[in-house]
Prior knowledge:
This protein has 250 residues and is an alpha+beta fold. 24% of the residues lie in helices and 29% in strands.
Amino acid sequence: MLGLADGPPPAGHWRRVASAALAKFGPDGARLPVPPAPFDVLVEVHLPGTEQELPELVRRCLREALGPATVDPARSAILAGLEYRVLPGSGAACAVGLIRRHGDLSPAEFTAHWRDRHVEFARRVSGANGYRQVHAESALSAVVAAELGLPGFDAAAFDGAGLLYFADLAAMSQARSSEAVRRAATEDEMRFVDHARSHFFAVSATHHPGRKSGRTGPGARSVGAGPPSQVSVPASGASTANRPTARRPK
Length: 250
């Protein structure tokens, strides 16, 4: 996820941030303290290749995706990792959760709950065209950050990114109007997500983020970038699973 400085927007596979904050309400109806996302765009890239090929793939794909755009490091975040494609499909609009786990959960506990239990709520969302989880790999995020020239980047800042796709923003809004599903999903999120240190926002396709060839599902690597320098290699990519390809969301 990237914050942009002066200059044109990215030339390639990117989505603009349409809403910096999607409201989250707890089971008691109280709004949760979720900070708005500081990003302007989300860049998403899938990276097929071996571990040794990743630096060059990252360099080339970032160059193609960002073009002449200038990244504002203070408003960008990077997330790279392995992608789990829970529901196949995509759409012009996407609800994004860039999440941090509760401090009392280990990475393995966080992954198990999110990947194996919370996915059931995504399957129940009416009108959703697709759902993906990207589980962060800090080493891969560090590679992307280095290629973007982001000094002092915390490669372990986020634990994952969830992407729920819809045909358009109107379909997303209608789906989120289902209070029962929305609150039940948020109640479960409260068991493993630290909402006060996470971002939930909406993006829409300005340039349709076409996919690079390569594997999807467990083992696909993904990278994403956006304001706060958010590049996700799983971002829609996840870690834990076989790992032959890479993906980068922006």
